[in-house]
Amino acid sequence: MDLAAKSLADPLRAWLARVRELDGSDLLLVTGRPPMVRAQGVLHPAADDDLTPDDIVRATGPLVPPRLQASFDAGEAIDLAFSMPQLGRFRMNLHFERGRVAAAIRSLPTKVPRLHTLGFSHDVSLLGRLQRGLLLVCGPTGSGKTTTVAAIVAELNANQDRHIVTIEDPVEYEHAHGRSVVEQVEIGVDAPSFPVALRSALRQAPDVIVIGEMRDIESIRIAVTAAETGHLIIATVHAPDVGGAVSRVADAFPSERQNTVRQELAMGLAAILSQSLLPGSDGRLVPAAELLVLSYGARQHIRKNALQNLHQEMTSTRKLGSFTLEESLAAHVRAGRLDRATASLRASHPDELDLLLAGPSSSRA
Questions:
Q1: Domain boundaries in the chain?
Q2: Any idea which architecture 10-108 has in CATH?
Q3: From the CB of residue 240, how many other CB atoms can be counted at a distance below 10 Å?
Q4: Which side of the chain, N or C, has fewer Cβ within a 10 Å radius?
Q5: Single pTM value for the model
């Protein structure tokens, strides 16, 4: 939504200006607290007075398009993106808490980032060179999945002659055409649902399809099939780690279908990246990640549902570009970006992290 000609309450504009001033990530609007800006994991008030429900409604109401108003009036949380002159683009989740309207507004960078600027501990540039298969980017809410996917698309767009179709709800990063042709489909505006948009996209002869989030069985089915037939499919999944991403996809199906889905995933998967954001030594957020580039061994473990073995596969396929979470954490600690205590709390295998950090050069605490 372009708000250049749309009237907005002055307080919202001032609060969002404060977000930009602090280089913040989010604006939180909750009754009984001032509008709060999250910057590098710390909350700062953007005004003095506590918000009332009416304050939040007046500030956010002009942003809600008619297509979403009915859903919101029925008590559903809604997501939308909007632009504001001089301030840039934002994504808003409008929801209810204790029967009152609340909002979380995420600040979106004005430029699409590149992979090498995201702060990963290891080289992940291979993700921008994939030709086919299914690439899953997983992690919890707020872990930077959408930003990573946008950076991967930017690499493809800059370096390859591809037809790229993104399907998002809402569109967050706007891609200008580069060497590639990039079409961006927004659910609710350009298509009524992810499955409808996916089926339509496949008729447009794309090389790459980006799925903002695989939310339903039909979307997953279409995505996995398309990955098996030569497309590059990039999708996000809410999952805690590489093995959890496989489980999340397979478990979306009825039990009698799950084994078949695992066989299809074993064939179609190209790579899985899991990431989370941790508070760094300098107060900035640091991406802790693990990457599995699929090999014969990993495919066999997925077929057999022996997902506990995927961690070992990450260590045995380093030459392909894989790395474990512990290797990522250790690299950040050695570089001084992350303190050892924070790394230890996040590690899935603390003993492995201790081994990686053993020695006089890794004594940072």
A1: 10-108, 115-323
A2: 2-Layer Sandwich (3.30)
A3: 16
A4: C
A5: 0.86
